[in-house]
Specification:
This protein has no helices and 13 strands. The protein is mainly beta. Strands 2, 4, 5, 6, 9, 12 and 13 form a seven-stranded mixed beta sheet that branches. A four-stranded antiparallel beta sheet has the order 1-3-8-7, with no helix packed on it. Strands 10-11 form a two-stranded antiparallel sheet. The model has no long low-confidence stretch (mean pLDDT about 95).
Length: about 130
Amino acid sequence: VQLQASGGGLAQAGESLRLSCKVSAASGFTLDYSCLGWFRQAPGKEREGIACISNMDDSTYYADSMRGRFTISGDNAKNTISLQMNDLEPEDTAVYYCALGDLQTVEYGATLKYDVAFWGQGTLVTVSS
C-alpha cells in the first residue's frame, strides 16, 4: 500500500489550501474497516490527528480543534481523500501526513487517534502571517 500526499505549499494567513492523498495498492488488496485521514506535525511538537474518513460508510471523525476550518472528504472511485483547510493560521504550519489505519481503533474528541498501518510521505504546509 502506498499513500501519496500532495497539495502542500506556502499560504498567507487567512488563505486556503487543499491537500489530497491517493491510495495505491496491489490488485485484489482490500482493507476492511479502515479509516483514511490526516495527521500533522509542527516543528518541535508531537504529531496530532486531524480527521479521518471511514471506508465503510464515509463517516468522518475529527479532533475537536480541527473541526470547522478543516474538512475531510473522500472519493472512493479514485481512492483519494482531500483535506480542505480554510482560514489558515501560522500555527497550522506543519508537515501533513496521510494515514491509513484501523477504523475500530478510532478515538475522537479533544484529540483524534487511531492505529495507523500505513503512512504517506508528508507534505509541508507553511503559513505566513
